[in-house]
Amino acid sequence: MNKKGIKVGSLTYAMKGRDLLQKNGYKAYLTRNPNPDTEDGCGYVIYVNNIDKRCFSILKSGGLKVSGVVDLGEAL
Questions:
Q1: Taking 70 as the threshold, does the pLDDT of residue 76 lie above it?
Q2: What is the pTM of this model?
Q3: N or C: which end of the chain has fewer CB within 10 A?
Q4: 3-state secondary structure of 23
Q5: Structural domain boundaries of the chain?
């Protein structure tokens, strides 16, 4: 099963995003981006078991800019 992570610009935003998602009932945690690009910032992503549109809405309403979604493969 391929797993996905939500890319954000900094470790601070990753931690804030994780906390926002957890407060809204998601099981979310931080992990390293296995193949970060130079523009990926801190190299951390927010892993959520089932990413859906509501996740992005929660992050946006919390003031976080999502940089994209990354395939974490079988790493987790």
A1: no
A2: 0.85
A3: N
A4: helix
A5: 3-73
- Placement of tokens 């992005």 in the chain: 56
DSSP string, 26-47: --EEEEE-SS--GGGTT-EEEE
Look up the CATH number of domain 3-73: 3.30.70
pLDDT of residue 50: 85
Burial of 70 (0-12, 13-18, 19+ CB in 10 A): buried
Report the percentage of the chain scoring pLDDT > 70.
91
Do 19 and 48 contact (CB within 8 A), yes or no? no
